[in-house]
Amino acid sequence: MKKILIIKADTNDADYITAESLVTEEELEEYVLPVVKVLKARKKEYEKTNDWTLQHNWENSECGNTSPLEMYAEQLSEHQILNFEEYLPHGEYGIHTIESIRIINVEETLF
């Protein structure tokens, strides 16, 4: 069964952009689900502490001071981060927060 990964991200003060990608079960297991796990933990820590430095969860390009490679060096491999980046929407200046990640199962392609 085909799966579509839909990622919604914030590029600048609630300017949301979205990307859709076909993914395999293997790609989900290796790249997407490990990232989801660390993003959930970061969100939980932010909600618990209200530490504003945890608010942005995926700063890349010009939208932040810390790259995902630095932010998640202890939890994710460079390989996982760089491959996950391929699924992200890319705004003019990058993104700073992943707002949602959804997976849709595609039963049949009609056209």
Order the strands across the largest sheet as they lie in space. 2-1-3
**Number of contiguous helices:** 3
The 3D shape can be described as globular
Q: Name the helix and strand elements from N-terminus to C-terminus, one letter apiece.
A: EEHHHE
Q: Tell me how many strands there are.
A: 3
Low-confidence segments, given as residue ranges, are: none
Percent in helix = 25-40%
Q: Whole-number radius of gyration?
A: 14 Å
Can you tell me the number of structural domains?
1
* Structure class: alpha+beta
Distance between the termini: 16 Å
Oligomeric grouping of the chains:
single chain
Main sheet overview: 3 strands, antiparallel
Q: Would you kindly provide a written description of the structure presented here, covering whatever features stand out?
A:
This protein has a 3-stranded antiparallel beta sheet with strand order 2-1-3, covered by helices on one side. It has 111 residues and is of the alpha+beta class. The protein is 33% helix and 24% strand. The chain has helices at 25-49, 68-71, 78-85; strands spanning 2-10, 16-23, 97-106. The model has no long low-confidence stretch (mean pLDDT 92). It has one domain (2-106). It is built from 3 helices and 3 strands; from the N terminus they run ββαααβ.
Q: What labels describe this entry?
A:
111 residues; 3 helices; alpha+beta; 3-stranded antiparallel β-sheet; globular
Gist of the model:
By secondary structure, this protein is an alpha+beta fold.
How does the SSE layout of this entry go?
Blueprint: E1 2-10, E2 16-23, H1 25-49, H2 68-71, H3 78-85, E3 97-106
Antiparallel strand pairs: 1-2, 1-3
